Amino acid sequence: MRASDMKVTIKDLGVSAQEQLRERLDRAASLRCNDHGQSVVALTINGRENGWFDTRWTTCCESLEQQASAIVKQRC
Ligand SMILES: [Zn+2]
Fold first, then answer.
1. pTM across the whole model
2. 1: CA distance to ligand 1 center in Å?
3. CA of 32 to the centre of ligand 1 (A)
4. To the nearest 5 percent, what fractions of the chain are helix, strand and coil?
5. DSSP H or E run through 73
6. Rounded to the nearest whole angstrom, what is the distance from the C-alpha of residue 20 to the centroid of ligand 1?
7. Per DSSP, what are the bridge partners of residue 45?
8. How many Å separate Cα 34 from the centre of its chain?
9. Is 8 helix (H, G, I), strand (E, B) or coil?
10. Most buried residue, 4, 12, 14, 74, by CB count within 10 Å?
């Protein structure tokens, strides 16, 4: 059973960084918005900037994006 249909695109990241991210991405994908009942639609990661993942989210609203972003956007 799939946890989510979140579409993930990762650019300019090595295999080890992707491994490191996998568990965080699973958690972000399993989030549901309290207001809209939606999961995250899509996430694009454009490599790293100043030691942080550079992420771009497609979500139903700001509040879901903030929750998902807080999970993924830790120092790497
Ligand atoms: Zn929402």
1. 0.84
2. 23
3. 8
4. 35, 25, 40
5. none
6. 27
7. 10, 55
8. 17
9. strand
10. 4
